[in-house]
Amino acid sequence: MDQANNAEDDPVGSPEDGSQARFPLGLSNAEALEVLWQMRASRRQVDPALPSTVTRLTTPEGSMVYLVGTAHFSDSSKNDVATTIRAVQPDVVVVELCQYRVSMLKMDETTLLKEAKDINLDKVQQAIKQNGVMSGLMQILLLKVSAHITEQLGMAPGGEFREAFKEAGKVPFCKFHLGDRPIPVTFKRAIAALSLWQKAKLAWGLCFLSDPISKEDVEKCKQKDLLEQTMSEMIGEFPALHRTIVAERDVYLAHTLRQAARCVEAPPNNQKVPAVVVGVVGIGHVPGIEQNWDQELNVQEILSVAPPSRFGWLLRTAAKGAVVGMLGYACYRAGTGVARVLLNAPATQSLLANAKPSAV
Fold first, then answer.
1. φ, ψ (nearest 5 deg) of residue 256
2. Which CDD domains does the annotation name (predicted)?
3. Do 200 and 55 share a structural domain?
4. Whose C-alpha in 160, 235, 300, 348 is 20 to 30 A from the C-alpha of 47?
5. Which residue, 96, 113, 111, is CA-closest to 155?
């Protein structure tokens, strides 16, 4: 998703009073763009006093990235994001979302709250269709965790991303980028990295999650010492899960942030100048992004998905076998004439053919 704002679409005025700027009559488009560019530059603070959750990163070309570490169910994180964007007037805002989760940017809090709590059969079917059986079921379990937190706090997830989207729309020329790896890739790589025992253990833990959570607990997640302790526990119990869900996405996010921080063209002569970028990510990703910032990164490697495992094939075969069994029983109840017609139908033949194991 790439949102660009221009002079025709957005009224420009002081962030404090919300008044609309008035351009002198008779300006050409190029002159109006230059005035707008200079207006934004005058608002941009050179050395702003920013929240403690903001980390500054630079590129060899002189671009500046302000990385806002957030807790995903936090009102103060929303304030941190708004404060940072208003202060630095960025060229690009990058958020920890992918195209599969972009709908949360335009939904209101009430709808999101309802959606987060409501896990129904349609969501289960959609998750399985999108990610496969094992990855889809694991996504549903994680949605259950999100629904548990939502119910405890009465707050929909992703408020900081919606705040970033709203504030970016107020900044002239600002583009809005989705910076995260596609979630189906993350789930498939995570499931493939776990043993059968680890999958069962993780699913069991997620199914019976019931610990109470308060807003104070969420705010503690922004304390780096608590964060490091939590990450250490996660690494110890599920090292493969940490690698695929956290470490690999650190690499991907560092890559997209560096892409966003390329020099931009300034009017009137399209001169290349260093960019100003605001990144909005969960605070757990900040240390990894910092570590990868100056490294050579290979994102193609972490975008690949291994072919289905033997266990996954067995699950699919068992499901197809159940369908064939029900079909056979229906044939028996319907009589031999109907049975012959059904068994010779193209759909039935395709189902039976696909149930055969592929050659090794």
1. -70, -35
2. TraB_PrgY-like
3. yes
4. 160
5. 113
Task: Count up the domains in the chain and report the number.
Answer: 2
Quick check: 170 and 88 in contact, CB under 8 A?
no
| Structural contact between residues 119 and 146, judged by C-beta atoms closer than 8 angstroms | no
Cα-based distances in Å from 226 to 223, 255, 282, 286: 6, 27, 14, 14
**Shared domain check, 333 and 229:** no
CA quadruple 312, 314, 319, 323: dihedral sign: positive
Same domain, 147 and 246: yes
Question: Are 328 and 259 part of one and the same domain?
Answer: no
* Pair (231, 155) in one structural domain: yes
Q: Is 64 helix (H, G, I), strand (E, B) or coil?
A: strand
Sign of the dihedral through C-alpha 95, 98, 99, 100: negative
Query: How wide is the angle at C-alpha 279 spanned by C-alphas 273 and 284, nearest 5°?
Result: 145
Spatial distance between the Cα atoms of 117 and 128, rounded to a whole number of angstroms: 19
By DSSP bridging, strand 54-58 and strand 64-70 are: antiparallel
The answer to whether position 359 is within a domain reads no
How many angstroms separate the CA atoms of 298 and 289, rounded?
Answer: 14
For 281, list phi and psi in degrees, rounded to 5. -140, 160
Rounded to an integer, what distance in angstroms lies between the CA atom of residue 288 and that of residue 222? 15
Residue type, 143: L
Does residue 298 sit in the same domain as residue 318?
Answer: no
Q: Is the pTM of this model over 0.90?
A: no
What range defines the domain where residue 143 resides?
A: 3-303
Residue 48 Cα to chain centre, angstroms: 28
Structure tokens at 108: 């209101």
Q: Dihedral of CA 113/191/288/293: which sign?
A: negative
